[in-house]
Amino acid sequence: MHPLDNPIWQALTTSQAHLAKIGTSARRFPNDITSLGAFPEPSEECYRSLASILEDDKATGVLFDYPAEPPSGWTVLGGAPLLEMVHKNGGPGLPSNSRVPEPEIRELTVADAPEMVALAQLTKPGPFGLRTRELGGYTGIHQNGRLAAMAGERLHVPGFTEISAVCTHPDFLGRGYAAALMTALMKNIYGRGEVPFLHVREDNLRAIALYERLGFTKRVLLQYRVLRRPGA
Prior knowledge:
- The chain has helices at residues 7-13, 44-52, 113-123, 177-191, 205-213, and strands spanning 21-22, 27-28, 37-38, 60-64, 75-87, 106-107, 139-143, 146-157, 160-168, 195-201, 216-228.
- By secondary structure, the protein is α+β, with helices and mostly antiparallel strands.
- An 8-stranded mixed β-sheet has the order 4-11-5-10-9-8-7-6, with helices on both faces. Strands 1-2-3 form a 3-stranded antiparallel β-sheet, with helices on one face.
- A hairpin with a 2-residue loop joins β7 (139-143) and β8 (146-157).
- The chain is globular, with a radius of gyration of 17 Å.
- The mean pLDDT is 92.
C-alpha cells in the first residue's frame, strides 16, 4: 500500500504519533487540533476502537480508498469525494510567465487563531480548530488589518507533507494570494526533502485548476466521511 492511500493513519502512526489519541485499532487527533481519525481497515473491531476514543457527541472525519458504509449505529453526518493530488515537478512555483503578486506573508501565531477559525468557518476548507496551526507551517496574508488568506501544513507522512486550509476571504479573491502562500509552503517542504500533497473536493474545479497550474497532478479519488459514534 502506498503511504498516501491511508494518509491520516500513516501520519498518526509515524510523524504525528505524539499527537495521537490511541485506541487498540484506531487513532485520532485531539478535536481542537483537527477532528480527523483513522484506522488501518474499516473492520468492526476498528470501528469499536475508534468509538472508544471519541468524546461525548464529537464527530470525526475519516478517509477511505473506496465508498464504505459504517456499521449499524454509526451516523454519517456528511462527506464528499476528495481528490488526492501530489506535486510532480520536483520543485515549487508557478510557470515563469505567471504574474502572481508577492504580498507580505507572515507566520500565524496563537494570537491569530480566532481569526483563522473564523476564516475557515467562512470558506470551509475542511476541519479546523483553535489548535490546528500547531500542525505546522501556517502562514497568512493580511490586508487592512484583516486576515485575507491563509494556508498551512496538516498531515505529515514520511516523505510527504500535506498542504491544507488553503483559503481566501471572498473580499480578496482573484489577487493570487492562495498561489503565493502555496508556493512559499512548497519551497519549505522541498527544502526538507519532502514532497507536497493535498486533498480537494472533486467538484472544486477552481481550486483544482490552480493546483494543476502549480504542478500538482491527480493521484487517486478518496472518500471522506464525517462520522458520529453509536450512542452519541
